Structures are given as C-alpha cells and as structure tokens.
Amino acid sequence: MKNERDEQFHQFVVSRRAALVRTATLLTAGDAHLAEDLVQSTLTKLYVAWPSFQRADNPDGYVRRTLVNALTDERRRWWRRSERSMAEVPDRAAAQHIDGDVSDGLRAALRELPPRMRAALVFRYFYDLDVADTADALGCSEGTVKSQTARALDRLRAVLGTNPSLALL
Predict the structure, then answer these.
(1) Quick check: 121 pLDDT over 50?
(2) Could you tell me which of 134, 159, 129, 160 has the C-alpha nearest to residue 148?
(3) pLDDT band with cut points at 50, 70 and 90 for residue 22
(4) Where along the chain do its domains lie?
(5) Where are the beta strands (DSSP E) in the chain?
(6) How many CB atoms are closer than 10 A to CB 75?
(7) Contact status, residue 8 vs residue 51, Cβ threshold 8 Å
(8) pLDDT higher than 50, residue 120
(9) Using CA atoms, how far apart are residues 45 and 37, in angstroms rounded to an integer?
(10) Nearest-CA neighbor of 26 among 13, 12, 44, 38?
(11) What is the Cα 130 distance to its own chain's centre?
(12) Between residues 119 and 100, which one has the greater pLDDT?
C-alpha cells in the first residue's frame, strides 16, 4: 500500500516526466539514451529529497538544478569521456555530411559545447528563463551565466558558420 509521500511523488512523475525528458534531451544535445538516464537519476534524487523538494521556494528551479547536477555527475564518469552513444554502430568511420538535416547540425554543434555552456543556452533560449533563474538552475552567479551564454553563442556561430547549409540558424 502506498503512503502519502509515494502517492505525491507518483503524481509528480506522471505530470512532469515528459517535460523532464524533453529538457534532458536538449541538455544532452539529442542523446535520448543519456537523457533517459539523467531523468531517472534526477527522479531518484528527488524521491530521496522529497521533503526538501516540497519545502522549496522554487520547485521548478529545484528540479532544473537537480537535472543539471545529474548531467554534471554523468559527465564526470571516466568511461563517458571516451564514448558516445549511437543508434547504429557503423562498419567504418562515417564521413561528415553537409546535406544533413539542420536540426541534426544544430544538435551536433551543441554536442561540441561543454555541458554547462549547453545548459546555459538551453535554459536561456529554449525555455526562455531569465538570467537569475538560469543562474539558480546552474548553481552559479548571474555574471557566469552571461559569460557562459556569450561564449557558447560565439562557439555555435563559429561551428554553424563553417557549414553553409546551417548558416540560416
């Protein structure tokens, strides 16, 4: 039999899981498998800290911060530094295709950014959070958000500018 805490958590998961997966997919530059892992880690951490989460002044910020921390923890794993997820294992190294989908190009460009820069862009531009809320999610100062965002945009422009089919972004 479920207790009240379990029922509250269950309702939270049912109502928020899809949005968490979307956010995690953006934070991982389209890596759906890693996104699912991050959401599972985030939900586990939230369940353990459920009383703290319920007392939080900004529950959405609490969830965002937990998700970013899960991404940071995941990127620190030694085996993640040398492996990349792939839907299909190629027989040999694939050549770069210029005629690919624009969203694939954007995902590839985002993948080249460090996780914190990518997170700053995702929260600022995909979720339209202000600098203060983004700083809260990332656990840093507002000045850091501004500099990380500016650097990330410069790097994206440089990467996307080298491919004429992606210059429209």
Answers:
(1) yes
(2) 134
(3) very high
(4) 1-84, 103-168
(5) none
(6) 14
(7) no
(8) yes
(9) 12
(10) 38
(11) 17
(12) 119
- Angle at Cα 58 formed by Cα 52 and Cα 59, nearest 5°? 60
For 103-168, the fitting CATH number among 3.30.1060.10, 2.40.110.10, 1.10.760.10, 1.10.10.10 is 1.10.10.10
CA distance 99 to 81: 28
166: which DSSP letter? G
pLDDT digit string (tens) for 56-108? 898 998 999 999 888 888 776 654 445 555 666 555 444 344 344 447 777 78
Q: Which two tokens stand for residue 152?
A: 């990330």
Task: Report how far residue 37's alpha carbon sits from residue 95's, in angstroms, rounded to the nearest whole number.
Answer: 29
What tokens does 137 get?
């999610």
What class, spelled out in words, does domain 1-84 have in CATH?
mainly alpha
Q: Report the percent of the chain where pLDDT is more than 90.
A: 37
- Distance from the first to the final alpha carbon of the chain: 52
Retrieve residue 95's tokens.
């050549």
Residue with tokens 């049912």: 14
